[in-house]
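Reviewers asked in the last cycle whether our approach scales beyond single polypeptides. To address this, we selected a multi-component target totalling 666 residues and predicted its structure end to end. The input consisted of the following lines:
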Amino acid sequence: MPEPSCDVIGIGNAIVDVIARTDEAFLVDHGLAKGSMHLIDAPAAEQLYTQMGPGIESSGGSAANTIAGIASLGGTAGFVGKVADDALGTVFAHDIRALGVTFDSTPLNGGSGTGRCLVLVTPDGERTMNTFLGAAQELGPDDIDEAGIAAAGAVYLEGYLWDPPEAKAAFRKAADIAQSAGGDVVLTLSDSFCVERYRDEFLDLLRSGRVDLVFANEHEVRALYETADLETAMAALAGEARHAVVTRGPQGCSIFNEGARVDVPAEPVKRVVDLTGAGDLFAAGFLFARARGLSLQDCGRLAALCAAEVIGHVGARPQANLRERAQAAGFDI
Amino acid sequence: MPEPSCDVIGIGNAIVDVIARTDEAFLVDHGLAKGSMHLIDAPAAEQLYTQMGPGIESSGGSAANTIAGIASLGGTAGFVGKVADDALGTVFAHDIRALGVTFDSTPLNGGSGTGRCLVLVTPDGERTMNTFLGAAQELGPDDIDEAGIAAAGAVYLEGYLWDPPEAKAAFRKAADIAQSAGGDVVLTLSDSFCVERYRDEFLDLLRSGRVDLVFANEHEVRALYETADLETAMAALAGEARHAVVTRGPQGCSIFNEGARVDVPAEPVKRVVDLTGAGDLFAAGFLFARARGLSLQDCGRLAALCAAEVIGHVGARPQANLRERAQAAGFDI
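The resulting structure, written as structure tokens, was:
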């Protein structure tokens, strides 16, 4: 393929996060499984918002966070996702464009507004997410620009796209375009509950060779293969995916590359403030390093560095300039 | 007076902050005086927003931040300020009520929306604020609830209230009610540019005995008395105000109390992330400690502790539970 004009295009739910600190009791009282993502409807979102503490609004969305990270590293990136023509939609569009990301998806007029995620952060830094998809429900194949996808080195797709009714068709369309054009199709499994909902379809995607690289955390890979044993699950994934990366929080990550395995330690973090976006920014560092042709070890190291930045503060988007942070750590990028 | 049913009621501009990191060159290019607050109109706000980096939205407003801090310390507090009936107004109302603060001001229908402050934070943590007042322009004497003010131990008023056309009338009305009821009138000078705009009126307020306690930082007190010498300015203030507190950033604060002076050091901070809200949270700690009858030294210490919390993260509202933080530091509150 010719030199891609864009490192990565991400496709995902366009979401603005509303992040509030909470205690464990609040999660128990509201029947929320800690560390997971729950889909909620508009009345439930309004009720939970009334009951939760003061928040901070920050652009989010899993794939969008990854794309923001790639842009912060100096990569060229685009994002496809559906916001509404409202105040939060303006915020989302501003925040991603301000990083130099191409974001041309037409906003939705009317409807139930831009998608929001009510993120509850417990004192241990773990986040529990409650997502009202709103306009993101309306993402469909018509939002996929063939020329844009074909010109990207990789297309990055979140497993959460299986939730809105038409988004998986958009996913499949984008994957087909990318593979025809010689680009990579990258999938993140998103969340263990998401894997429970769509296990068979995700396994089918991997087995059909439609995915070139898959990201999963330890919970997701165990959910995918329905086993409590991480090594068993990782071996199964490595046998089915050409390239796979499994993140294991403070234990670092394991990279599987056509049979070979490389383990990379996590970047030490003084204090885990908010884990929101840790996996997303890990993927950002990995994909950027991969696009620049760095070694697997360095892909894992840059990924860990980006994840460490985002868990050191509230919010799922980088607050530091990741390019400068990486250069200070010795990366020649 | 009978035991007040509320520690402090704050009156100020109801603002949602949009906080973005920037470099020094951006401030120079846009002719913005670092560390100050600039009033801008709607087109200027839109233009600046387009040009600035990705942001985080967080409820703000100087007096509102102070009231949020008092509530986080476990105090009883109310706030009076004007938002619009829009998404940001909903955010502002949620965030302050979620802390247990009484906030009953009627939102404005239509108009130019809830007030916003575009806050640019440079790498040194200094913040430069660009405020579009929006609905806050419409605050007036009718928004002042006589019974509420009369039942408060203190009414806290920001100097920024001199900017909207009718807010100073609200200020005067609230001050009159508080003094008649035996409550304290507390004023913060807000900003050195604000002092430049309203110097004579502020001096008149102090000299007429309408203010019981005044907060100022070193820049504001120097601007008030038009002298570069801080000690000269502080001596002048101490001679005119019954009670005054001058904050001097990392040099701590000087408390003047009917002729006596107490200096209290600042709380050490590992890294200054964002100075937005430092003065507001200082006032929160001081006013709460004062309402609990603590010594001047302890008022200053609790004030410094609250300021230290807010400058350790992005955003002008506390992210930690200040009551727990204060108890851990040995305050019996």
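Chain A has one domain: 6-322. We regard this as preliminary and will revisit it once experimental data from Aim 1 are available.
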